[in-house]
UniProtKB/TrEMBL annotation, chains A, B:
Coiled-coil regions, chain positions: 99-126
Protein name (database record): GntR family transcriptional regulator
CDD domains the record matches: WHTH_GntR
Source organism of the structure: candidate division WOR-3 bacterium
Domain of life (superkingdom): Bacteria
One Pfam family matching this protein: GntR
Domain HTH gntR-type per the UniProt entry, residue ranges: 6-73
Transmembrane segments: none
């Protein structure tokens, strides 16, 4: 029974994690355990186990008398996450040594970014953009060649993903990514550093803007999220 | 039963963690599950659970066919741990804003360091020195005022503790700590940065020296450890 339970709670954890970091379950939304147990056709125990693991990952918070909620990050928390990300990522870039095989990968990524831009312009679908985003930043972290730094970054990754979905800076991010890749390909590492810091600061500002608006007017449906986006 | 088991394995985890980070169980030592189960008067399950959690914490490694061992860090791993530590700690110091209450704490710490020096000189007991070490570096990390950075540092802490016990730089570390505190108290933050970087690099070099020697001649008794120390 223990093994089955564990695997159930892990599956539920994965589904909820994707809904939260993918911004389908919005920050501040109350999580109804009974409803989830019915949806997944399981008892409440594995749902509760999954939620407790999500608390450790900072994606869910609990109000002891009231219940579980999707984590609603404060401005200060967003700043702290982005600050640590900036420290790790700029360090990795400063240390990075891009060889020819890395440069080939970056050129291929540049083409994928062009494609992501076309898809986003045509259908408003940011899926491919998100993929290129993860690939570029992941590659920079890889270049740190420090397994402990990579591990720490991976732990932050859910939160970074969540923040990424909050901001609507797709077109500007695409341009910033292109500038960053061009600087690396040209060997202008000092420029690359500046472009990266500037890009990460803008991502931070974008997240704070959206999430602060959401904190002021807690939302539970995607209809009201659209209002927030429109208000921007 | 599940609750009792959990608490048993957590207790065993704590005991083994202390033995490893306190350098009583030396790197490379084989861990005998049967022996530990007899010592703690428990079944093998909670011992194995504790060891598996210690693997996650990078303090134990497993060789699937042979068994569990106290983690024997490679030179590259020590460099990576120390590098990440340096990135986090120098960032925290750069950002730190020491107010009057912090300065009072640093003055009190300076007196404790004097005391630690006397105890170490008289009895060779480094317990008090280790305490002042943790207090000073912990205070710098606190001043980052970033809960995610603190969390990451805390995760590294067992490994930092382990490395700290490997090097025999007590007297030099005491002097370096004094210089660092003096620079902060004098408001020479640029000097403080340089002193911190220099200190952490020396700690790294000291750990690499001892642990590399130990890797070359795997040890299991403290008698043979003394030989390594003498060889230095």
């Amino acid at each position: 029974m223990e093994v089955v339970n564990k695997s159930l709670s892990e599956q539920i954890l994965e589904i909820l994690r994707e809904r939260i970091t993918g911004f389908k379950l919005k920050p501040g939304t109350r999580i109804n355990i009974d409803e989830l147990a019915r949806e997944f056709k399981v008892s409440k125990t594995p749902v509760r186990d999954a939620l407790n693991k999500l608390i450790e990952k900072n994606l869910v918070e609990v109000n002891p008398r009231v219940g579980y909620y999707v984590k609603n990050l404060t401005k200060k928390e967003i700043e702290e996450i982005c600050e640590l990300r900036r420290v790790l990522e700029t360090y990795a870039l400063r240390k990075a040594n891009f060889n020819n095989s890395d440069k080939e990968k970056l050129k291929a990524l540049m083409q994928k970014i062009d494609q992501a831009e076309r898809v986003y312009k045509k259908k408003g679908d940011r899926h491919l953009f998100d993929e290129t985003d993860r690939e570029l930043h992941g590659m920079i972290i890889q270049k740190s060649e420090n397994r402990y730094l990579k591990k720490v970054f991976l732990q932050l990754f859910d939160l970074i993903n969540l923040l990424q979905h909050t901001h609507q800076r797709v077109m500007s991010s695409i341009e910033e990514h292109r500038k960053l890749i061009r600087a690396i390909l040209d060997g202008n590492y000092e420029d690359a550093q500046k472009i990266l810091i500037d890009h990460l600061s803008k991502v931070e500002a974008g997240s704070i803007e959206v999430l602060t608006l959401m904190r002021e007017k807690p939302l539970s449906s995607s209809a009201s999220l659209k209002k927030v986006k429109a208000a921007k």
